[in-house]
Amino acid sequence: MSQQQPYSTGGSPGEGYSPVLSTLACRLFAPLAPRTLKCRFRYSVGDPFAVSIDLMLAPDAAVTWVVARELLDSGTHRPSGEADFRVWPAVGGRDGRRLYFSLIRPDGHVTFESDLTEVRRWLDSTYRLVPAGSEAELLSWEALEAMLLEVD
Predict the structure, then answer these.
(1) First-last CA distance in the chain
(2) I want to staple 112 with a disulfide (CB 3.0 to 4.6 A). Which of 25, 62, 75, 86 is the partner?
(3) 68-112 pLDDT per residue, tens
(4) pTM recorded for the entire structure
(5) Is 13 left (phi over 0), alpha (psi -120 to 50) or beta?
(6) Cα 80 → chain centroid
(7) Among the ranges given (13-27, 45-59, 86-100), the one the predictor scored with the smallest mean pLDDT
(8) What are the distances in angstroms from CA 124 to CA 28, 39, 43, 105, 132?
């Protein structure tokens, strides 16, 4: 029996390959009631240390938070993060395994919950694509050096 995966891929393995998880995130502690948003987790081998989290506020408006893949991975097992992004798992309750994450800015913060199992499966797909510890092999150090040394 094949298992459906809640993520898609943007092509074949290589620089343009990007596993994407489209899911829902429930905003917690909202003034009136929790609000559900479409949420997209993205990964690209072009930026192998990072994942992007897109919160779809409207069909044409999104807020994107870029965090370390390792931080999100750690947060699926134990409370992780400090400063502007914190993430932690919860097991049990009425909805089973949940993943909580807070986005923090000087002018406020917001906390969301999502399905931990979906996020974990998606993260596993990124590690099959780029194993932990091999991210630096995909970086173009020469291009980075040229960019840093570029003089106007």
Answers:
(1) 59
(2) 25
(3) 999 999 999 999 998 899 999 987 666 668 999 999 988 888 999
(4) 0.78
(5) beta
(6) 14
(7) 13-27
(8) 26, 18, 11, 29, 10
